[in-house]
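The data layer described in this paper is built around a simple, fixed record for each protein. Such a record has a labelled line for the sequence and another for the C-alpha cells. For reference, a complete record is included directly beneath this paragraph.
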Amino acid sequence: MMLAWHWPWAALAGILVAVAVVTLIVVFARRRDTNDEAVFSLDEDLNTEHASRLFHQWRVVNRVAVVSMAIALAIAVALVARPSQVGAGDERASSRDIVLCLDVSGSTLPYDREVIDTYLELVKHFEGERIGLSIFNSTSRTVFPLTDDYDLVTRQLTAASTALKGVETQDDIDKMSDADYQKIADWLEGTQNRKDATSLIGDGVVSCAAMLPGFAYGSASEANASRQRAASIVLATDNVVSGKPTYSLDEALDLTRQTNITVDGLYSGPKSSEGEQTTLDMKTAIESHGGVFLTQSNGRSVEELVRDIQSRRDTESNSKAKASMTDAPGWWTLALVVAVVIVLTCAWRLKR
C-alpha cells in the first residue's frame, strides 16, 4: 500500500488559511499591545522557590500547548487533503453472454435435464455473466432472455428441471400423471409449430444467436460483429434432423462466426450413436468454426462435459490489474484526537 492524497489542493488551501489566521491574530495582538497600560513588577514575588517552580511549570505547559496546537492544525490540514492508500489488485468481472441452446426433440430430452441441472449449479458462482435459455424442435422458443438476474435464472432452470424429470426414461413417461404431462407440454409449447419436421438444428442455432446483441437474421456485417462482451452458445443436440430447415448447421455456424459468436457442441444422445455419421458431421462443423465439441466417451457424464466447456470459455477476459484508492484517515484521526486532548488538558492546567 502506498500513501497518497486525494485532495492535495485542499491541503495547500488549508495552509494558506492557517497562515492568514495566525497573521491576523499576531497583527491584532500587536495593535492591542500599543495601548498604554499599567505595568506591575512581579520580580520580588517570583524570587521564592515555590513561585519559581510554578512559573517554570507554567512555561512548560504553555509550550506543550502551543506545540500540540500546531500539530493538531497540521493534522487537520492533512485530513482535509484526504489521506488515502493506493493498492493494486485484480478486479475481476466476467463479461460473457451465454445462451443455452437445447434441442427438445424426444431423443434429447433426457440429456437436456442434465445440462440444465449442471448450469443450475454453475450459476451460483456467476459474477457478471449473462445467461439465456432457448429450446427448439421444429421451431424455437425463448424460455428466458439474456439476464444477470440469477434469482430469475435459478427459478426458470429449476422449473425446467422439474418438468423434464418425468421424461428421462420410457418408464418415467408411462408413469406420468395428467398434471405432469400438462406441465411438460406447457414447457415445450411453441417448439413444434411445423408439421412433418423435428430437430431443425440450424434454425435453432440461428434463433439462439438472435438472442445475442449484434446478430441479425440473414446478415453478418462487421458492424454487427463489434461487441464488448464475449458471446457463446452451448448447443446440446444429437444432430438428427427430420425435415427441411431454413438454415443448415454449417450455414448457421457461418453466420455466428462472422459475428464473433462461439458455438460449442455437446452431444446429447446415446453413447452407442457417437460414431454415427451425423455425430461426426456435427463434430466437424463445430470444430471447423472454432468451437469445442464434446461427447460422453470415456465414461464422462453430461455434467462433466458442460463443466469442461464452461472452464474453457471462462477466461475472465475483463480481468485487469487496477489501482484502487481508498480513504485511510485512521491513524491521522487518532493523532488529531490525541493532540486535541493534550491541548485541552494544558488549557485546563493553565487555567488553574
About this structure: The two ends are 46 Å apart (CA to CA). The CA atoms of residues 61 and 349 lie 8 Å apart.
